[in-house]
Amino acid sequence: MKITIVSGGASKRTICELELSTSTTIKELKKSFAQKNPKYYVDRQRFVTSQLGPDNKPIVLSDDNKTLSHYKITSDNTLVFKDLGPQVSWTTVFLTEYAGPLLIYPIFYFFGQQIYGQEYTHGYTQQYALLCYSLHYIKRLLETIFVHRFSHATMPISNIFKNSIYYWGNTILVSYFVNHPLFTSPPPARVLIGLCLWVVGELFNLISHIQLRNLRPAGSTVRQIPKGLLFEYVSCPNYTMEILAWIGFSIMTQTLTAYVFTVLGAVQMYVWAVAKHRRYRKEFDGKNGELQYPRNRKIIVPFLL
Amino acid sequence: MAGLVKKYLFLYNIVQFGGWTYILYLLAAHFHAGGWSSQSLIGVWQHVGWWVTLFQFGAVLEIVHSLVGFVKTPVATTFVQVFSRVACVTLAILVPTTNDHWAMSLMLTAWGITEVVRYLFYALSLYDAVPYILGWLRYTLFIILYPSGVTGETGTIIASLPYVKETGLWSITMPNALNVSFNLYYTLIGSLAFYVIGLPWLYTYMLGQRKRFIQSGGVTKKPATSSVTSSPSSAKKQN
To answer: Which end of chain B has fewer CB atoms < 10 Å from its terminal CB, N or C?
Structure first.
């Protein structure tokens, strides 16, 4: 059958025509489109139907492994092409945004004399904070390289700038105050409590990431219901534990900017967690032989939220 | 758009239009009384400050409109616009050295003319009733008013600097229990950089809008929104 690809927007200009069959997968569709339009490599493409779906919106051909017939395209048809813009791999984005904090944070520690214009020695809290902050980002870098398996290969290139500005700016604003010569440490007991929370958070965050990795066989984008340990209570324990680690860091350093970024991070992670929780529930709805997602599992806070 | 929301927005824009018309009238009366000389710039803030404060702080509602989805303007855009204005008004209230400065008169006059045209334009466009001349003014006056407004605002900020430095206004110094410090003096100097970056950007944007307006023969249709163009999930982080 003949599939006509048109551009989006008002113009609906014909880009090309492809000869495909009903059993052609979306991935193959994208490959044949890329052959004719090499500028738009597979990850840059998105297709939607020209006819509106049941909710009066075009249907997005989102699953690369599904066939055209799955999306009810069984005869000559028109699809709308959308350019997602230049893409960059998740790994590149992660490495760039995490390298910043790892390099920037210690600058305020080791060059404090030049930055603050006075000689001073660091207290133990400042030493622990340097260790915690650096270890956190070293862990993230290592996880990106050795642990994570991403379901999407790429994201738009603008994300690299947006994310980097956030991470780098965040680091400058936290590091400047924590490493300040006039820094006031909270009492030892609170430093210890913060440090303990940080260790627990980081440890279980790592464990959750490894559990997630083991759900997805190498080279695939298979989705399964995560199980075991904290996953029995919440859908995204990796976020729960990351938030806990930052709460620990904030208690330990008792610095306003650290608290502010803990809250901002928690809000963002909550939004992601809600989306992921919904996806799990939709995907494992217990119908058509699919598994049923555990009903009592919360989003991010055990038993509560 | 729901009928009630539309009525409310119309009312809001008309009230703002009325407020800024009155402010513009007060300004003109003040300059007139001073014989349009440099002497007439003295006492401008004392004369109109209360009304400017009322209507400019009232514009904080526009952030709310954007947040709850009454208007399509992105929250961030509205926030930056309203925040910079409110910050300048706050400086005028707190820093006496800004009040009789020429930049204050320039700033208020540029704001006044801009807002009178803008709010009437918004109000009428709700009912697709914008006369060509009003649209033309909206997309033409900025050529002069933007640079004037920015000169006025940055001039006001600069006029406040010595006073802010001397009094340590709103500054927080370490050590303190939250390990935080704030220096309004340097923050203000830093904010000047945003004007330098922001003006050319906004100016080019508005020139583009103007071109579109002239070419379309004065049709001020809102841009069509498409549900297809919403960002794909791949743009979000998932780990």
So the answer is: N
